[in-house]
Amino acid sequence: MRMKINKWFIIPVLVLLMGIPQTQAQSSAQKPIRLAISGMTHGHIAFILGRKDKKDFQLVGVCEPNTELAQHLSKKYGFDPKLIYSNLTNMLDQVKPEAVLAFGSIFEHMATVEACAPRGIHVMVEKPLATNNFHAKRMVELAEKYHIYLLTDYETSWYPTTAKSFQLVNDSNFIGQIRKVVIHDGHQGPKEIGCEKTFLDWLTDPVQNGGGALIDFGCYGANLMTYLMKGQTPLSVTAVTQHFKPEIYPKVDDEATIIVSYPKTQCIIQASWNWPFGRKDMEIYGASGYIVAVNNNIMRIRKEPMQAEQTKQVTSKDIDIDVDPFSYFADVINGKVKMTSYDPYAITNNVVVVKILDAARESAKTGRTVKLKK
After folding, report:
1. Domain locations in the chain?
2. Please, are residues 220 and 154 in contact by the beta-carbon 8 Å criterion?
3. Contacts of 202 (CB under 8 A, 6+ apart)
4. CA–CA separation, 236 vs 286, rounded Å?
5. Euclidean distance between CA atoms 158 and 335, whole angstroms
6. Is domain 3-155 in CATH 3.20.20.70, yes or no?
7. Which end of the chain has less Cβ packing within 10 Å, N or C?
């Protein structure tokens, strides 16, 4: 997943540092990146605010119009309430961050990039990149014009099994030509699992989130499949959405099945707010074998001439992957990591993701297969 820069030039430094491990030597010499947060209504805000033991970022400001929410999070996670702003441009001009994390609604991502890009501020948004193709195109134009990094964070991007699956499929040809990929993502429903009201309000809004389960969990499958296919745009998308719980989610779908077709491969994405338990798993079937990524660390594999399935445990010690998305973001900014165009975090991958989701939404609405243009 990660392409690292040549490190031979730091060997003499390591010797002088009397055997200090390379990662420790690099982090001690690297000045923390000035970080700000745009929006705090996303439940995943805990991922960054609860990250106390890292020194790669220095929190210099948070912007959240809901001051009651911001004050609550300040007390809960122990950051200085003086860092709280209600206006994004004012915060950016006052604290001058080098990087921003977007934890508001998906619809708000474009406004964050519009404010940050002209100021040369790198941005990481929570998945997906945007609610529609127009927003995605605008964000890409701004990122390219002002030469900023624009990353999209998915939980499955940090899974060792994700990186190992890619390696087995593309680097070692473990299962031959991919024929079918089935990806399951979701949980019992955002209200059922106890999402905060401030999160639930926009997560169940067709404009602010772009849809329901189709967007919330369909994006994982679209991102993973684009990664496995090395950024290839599919030929077509066909989708069906349903409302199993209209009394809870009257405005958006809670069940979605998306079929993504390629010249020699098919992907079925099953996104749901109706699973009996939370799940993020992936099945990859090839001409001569299969890979099942059960969760972040467990895989089941079989190929010819194996007589039985084998279960493997995969950790970051077995495959080169950063299990902390914010460390990855810092490494990209500091030039320690060079992303591929199809990397799960990469802007080009995530433009394809939005194309798939946009087409899926249209297909579900019209009942027709939507063909995609490259």
Report:
1. 3-155, 158-320+347-371
2. yes
3. 41, 104, 105, 107, 208, 209
4. 20
5. 19
6. no
7. C
